[in-house]
Design a protein that fits this description.
The protein is an alpha+beta fold. It is built from 5 helices and 6 strands. The strands form 2 sheets. The protein has a 3-stranded antiparallel sheet with strand order 1-2-3, with no helix packed on it. It is globular, with a radius of gyration of 18 Å. The chain starts with 10 loop residues before the first strand and ends with a helix.
C-alpha cells in the first residue's frame, strides 16, 4: 500500500479490525519510510451496480458520491466520519443483498434519508431539502412537522 504522504510503497499493518457492519476490515498502517500513519479499508468486490438517474441515464454506483453528499449535510454537526462510513456500508450491504443490478438514485436517496434521520435530525433535514428539492418554506415546514410528529 503506497503511503499517501511520501508515496513510499512499503508499510506495515499496526492494527486490523472489522468494521461494525463486518463487511470490511479497517487497517491502521505505518509507512516504513516517513513513519506517518494512515488508514486503509479492505472489502469485498461486488458486481458492478448501475444507478438509474432521474433523467433515465445510467452510471456506475460510486460510494464516494454518497459519502460526499452525507458529509455536506453533516457539516458542522457532531457526526463522525466513522458514522458516515457506517451509513454508507449499511446502504451498500442493503443494495448488494437485494441482488439487483440496477437501482434508482431516488431509492438510494431514501436509504440515506432513513439512516440520517436516526443519527442527526439537522443533517437529515439538510439532505432531504436538497434531495427532495424543497420548493418553498411550506414544503420545508411539512418535513419538519413529520419529524415532530414522529417524536410524539
Amino acid at each position: 500500500m503506497r503511503c499517501p504522504f511520501c508515496n513510499y510503497i512499503e508499510s506495515k499493518v499496526i492494527d486490523s479490525r472489522p468494521t461494525d457492519e463486518g463487511t470490511s476490515i479497517r487497517r491502521r498502517r505505518e509507512c516504513d519510510n516517513c513513519k506517518n500513519r494512515f488508514t486503509t479499508y479492505e472489502k469485498l468486490e461486488y458486481i458492478t451496480l448501475m444507478v438509474v438517474k432521474k433523467d433515465g441515464t445510467r452510471e456506475s454506483f460510486d460510494r464516494n458520491k454518497i459519502i460526499n453528499g452525507i458529509i455536506k449535510s453533516c457539516e458542522k454537526r457532531p457526526v463522525s466520519i466513522e458514522q458516515i462510513e457506517e451509513i454508507v456500508c449499511s446502504i451498500e450491504n442493503t443494495i448488494h443483498k437485494s441482488m439487483i443490478k440496477e437501482i434508482s438514485s431516488q431509492k438510494i436517496g431514501e436509504l440515506i434519508i432513513d439512516k440520517l434521520k436516526d443519527i442527526d435530525e439537522i443533517a437529515y433535514v439538510r439532505f432531504a431539502s436538497v434531495y427532495r428539492q424543497f420548493k418553498d418554506i411550506n414544503t420545508f415546514l411539512q418535513e419538519l412537522e413529520k419529524i415532530l410528529g414522529e417524536k410524539r
